[in-house]
From TrEMBL:
Pfam families (alphabetical): TrkA_C
InterPro entries assigned: RCK_C, RCK_C_sf
Species whose genome carries this gene: Streptomyces violaceusniger
GO MF term list: monoatomic cation transmembrane transporter activity
Protein name: RCK C-terminal domain-containing protein
Domain RCK C-terminal intervals: 1-73
Any one GO BP annotation for this protein: potassium ion transport
Annotated SUPFAM superfamilies: TrkA C-terminal domain-like
């Protein structure tokens, strides 16, 4: 069974701090696997990346968790 991937605009809960400090996985049950900064191409997410307003992120995890996280946008 594969985990779903959700593409969404980065919500304020993960913006302005390194992904590793956002505690996304423990708070929401999802993991950011890709980021598309405004005006750039998608790239793999790393713990030290800082997500900004308007960035598109790809999140994976359990279906209910990623859907709930996507609704934060």
């Amino acid at each position: 069974m594969t985990s779903p991937l959700v593409k969404t605009i980065a919500p304020s809960a993960v913006r302005g701090i390194p992904l590793g400090e956002s505690r996304l996985r423990s708070r929401y049950g999802g993991t950011v696997v890709g980021i598309k900064p405004m005006g750039n191409d998608f790239t793999y997410a790393t713990a030290d990346m800082i997500v900004e307003k308007g960035d598109v992120i790809i999140v994976t995890g359990k279906t209910a968790a990623v859907e709930a996280f996507a609704e934060l946008s």
